[in-house]
């Protein structure tokens, strides 16, 4: 017995066992579609793991091929289906700055409201996904219904949904087992490199999955208050840039964290661009989050990052 | 005759439970949808995974169904309406339900897949947690009835049901029964969000149909056991005894179903910790309290 | 009477059959579960011999015990699925000898022992359960309690031995070997 197991790697509990490499995804009920998580399992424990995106965006333009500004915006927005408004806004801002347009406060306001609407919808989508992962059917149903309503809603209808969103948060605070399931799981302390968005803001609190849940719920309420104070949302549309040229850079706080785009514009055509997203950094944290955890906890930790595989750059 | 009546009642309850389950998830009450989707399973391809342990793979769903029905065999619907009124009925149901574990280990090991295997072994851990909380409350129930015969246990609750006489035992048994039936929030062996279906993952077609039927039957059997042990079995005014048994059984089964809907899945470590640190001392306390009541109260 | 003898024989043969399977398979899980079903068949023999409580108890206890044994066998064996063609047998000559001697002794005892008069009518199951309870909590109580405490002590001791001692010397040693 000792002779045959002495060279095997030891896991945390000191038992030598066969390790299995098991894929989770790209189509897995508890994880966002397109994300492939490869875990090395030692029984029900994870010894190591990494995440890759199978649907990530290629982060450079083809050499010498210029893209029309409008087409560029459409492409970027449709490449990020989980946050298309944010990236449409990002592209518009970068191109307008490259063309040297001044900011227009009325447009900015409508755009900001649209961004906050998407933030609410995106966080609700994450809640539904978390409900699916935790086997919490009620949460999945409720959050998904609200998400659909918000995506269709006008500013006035949004305000009517406010009590429902408050009730959802209150309900989650009262749900038994939820806290014990999330508290202390997937801890990312505030000094961790590459944190951005809700994950970074939750790191100032406890930095675990429970803190991230409440950070997102708080952000839903904050966004609602902002919309209430500001007005109707307006989908970002490119203003008239003529045949302007120049370099532009823009940053947008997407639902998952900061996204940055810099591009070179020549006669109204995008010559080259460079994109940086929050998920691109967050996906690298997966390996440390899952190592040495139980399988269920590891998946909760990965889920709590709210990774969008589309926003990972390859 | 009794056999046929009980089996029909069991099947009917399973069908009703499936209809209600569909109602809670889709929001529509469709009486035939369950039957149709059950039939559809029979028509679908039943895929066998690569290099399975064929014996285990084929046996597991059938074994699960058999043990669920065997468990129901000792539970009375009415004073004489029981398949086998064994002298050791309360022990026999434990023996039958112990094989749920065997069936799940077979279903986990058989298909030669990682998700299924982890699911199967997870249930072994789950058994370590819930097993004592099934046996100890039943002990207290048998103490009051001074018998292991299920019909005598029901008769002993005439006037005062066990849910009032030993509420602590009822709560522990109800939770443990949900864990035994691996319903949410204790669905660790199947865990759709964690193991992609776990022991269910590799089953398709007619085998999956049998497995689903077995799981629902198991829920009904455990609900029926809860009824017999704690809710006064067939006792009740106006309606005939069998009707009361069925109503109570369905009510317990539906409450198990709904409890899972509003709760996230429990962590394995928490389940184990709470069952042992909290559950077992409470179960022992229940036995002591019931023992004192039996001795002191005439 | 004949029906009873028939069922005792059937379950007895099933117990032997599953017992043979335990050693004929290379899969640890199959082996453990074959042993389980062998023991279950013994439980059914009890039932056929009208000892209901003992039969049901045997059937119940074995399910859990053998499943736990199965996971330990899977954990500690190199080829738990038996798909690697590993030879799991050893000390063949000694074990054959031991098996033959043990079987011989059992047969001799079975035929030579004085089993007393045959019981004409077994008491009903409820009476048996009661008598068994009286026995367990009366004359035999000391034996069972002693056995119980001994097993519990052994379990605690085994767990204590299995947990590696965490000392600084120990962890330094561990790093050396890595």
TrEMBL record, chain A:
<dbReference type="InterPro" id="IPR029014">
    <property type="entry name" value="NiFe-Hase_large"/>
</dbReference>
<dbReference type="InterPro" id="IPR052197">
    <property type="entry name" value="ComplexI_49kDa-like"/>
</dbReference>
<protein>
    <submittedName>
        <fullName>Ni Fe-hydrogenase III large subunit</fullName>
    </submittedName>
</protein>
TrEMBL record, chain B:
<feature type="transmembrane region" description="Helical">
    <location>
        <begin position="123"/>
        <end position="143"/>
    </location>
</feature>
<dbReference type="InterPro" id="IPR001694">
    <property type="entry name" value="NADH_UbQ_OxRdtase_su1/FPO"/>
</dbReference>
<dbReference type="GO" id="GO:0009060">
    <property type="term" value="P:aerobic respiration"/>
</dbReference>
<comment type="similarity">
    <text>Belongs to the complex I subunit 1 family.</text>
</comment>
<feature type="transmembrane region" description="Helical">
    <location>
        <begin position="55"/>
        <end position="78"/>
    </location>
</feature>
<dbReference type="GO" id="GO:0003954">
    <property type="term" value="F:NADH dehydrogenase activity"/>
</dbReference>
<feature type="transmembrane region" description="Helical">
    <location>
        <begin position="242"/>
        <end position="263"/>
    </location>
</feature>
<dbReference type="Pfam" id="PF00146">
    <property type="entry name" value="NADHdh"/>
</dbReference>
<protein>
    <submittedName>
        <fullName>NADH-quinone oxidoreductase subunit H</fullName>
    </submittedName>
</protein>
<keyword id="KW-0812">Transmembrane</keyword>
<keyword id="KW-0472">Membrane</keyword>
<keyword id="KW-0520">NAD</keyword>
<dbReference type="GO" id="GO:0005886">
    <property type="term" value="C:plasma membrane"/>
</dbReference>
<feature type="transmembrane region" description="Helical">
    <location>
        <begin position="216"/>
        <end position="236"/>
    </location>
</feature>
<feature type="transmembrane region" description="Helical">
    <location>
        <begin position="90"/>
        <end position="111"/>
    </location>
</feature>
TrEMBL record, chain C:
<comment type="subunit">
    <text>Composed of 13 different subunits. Subunits NuoA, H, J, K, L, M, N constitute the membrane sector of the complex.</text>
</comment>
<keyword id="KW-0520">NAD</keyword>
<feature type="transmembrane region" description="Helical">
    <location>
        <begin position="142"/>
        <end position="165"/>
    </location>
</feature>
<protein>
    <recommendedName>
        <fullName>NADH-quinone oxidoreductase subunit J</fullName>
        <ecNumber>7.1.1.-</ecNumber>
    </recommendedName>
</protein>
<keyword id="KW-0472">Membrane</keyword>
<dbReference type="Pfam" id="PF00499">
    <property type="entry name" value="Oxidored_q3"/>
</dbReference>
<comment type="similarity">
    <text>Belongs to the complex I subunit 6 family.</text>
</comment>
<feature type="transmembrane region" description="Helical">
    <location>
        <begin position="32"/>
        <end position="49"/>
    </location>
</feature>
<feature type="transmembrane region" description="Helical">
    <location>
        <begin position="6"/>
        <end position="25"/>
    </location>
</feature>
<keyword id="KW-0874">Quinone</keyword>
<keyword id="KW-1133">Transmembrane helix</keyword>
<dbReference type="InterPro" id="IPR042106">
    <property type="entry name" value="Nuo/plastoQ_OxRdtase_6_NuoJ"/>
</dbReference>
<dbReference type="GO" id="GO:0008137">
    <property type="term" value="F:NADH dehydrogenase (ubiquinone) activity"/>
</dbReference>
<feature type="transmembrane region" description="Helical">
    <location>
        <begin position="55"/>
        <end position="74"/>
    </location>
</feature>
<comment type="function">
    <text>NDH-1 shuttles electrons from NADH, via FMN and iron-sulfur (Fe-S) centers, to quinones in the respiratory chain. Couples the redox reaction to proton translocation (for every two electrons transferred, four hydrogen ions are translocated across the cytoplasmic membrane), and thus conserves the redox energy in a proton gradient.</text>
</comment>
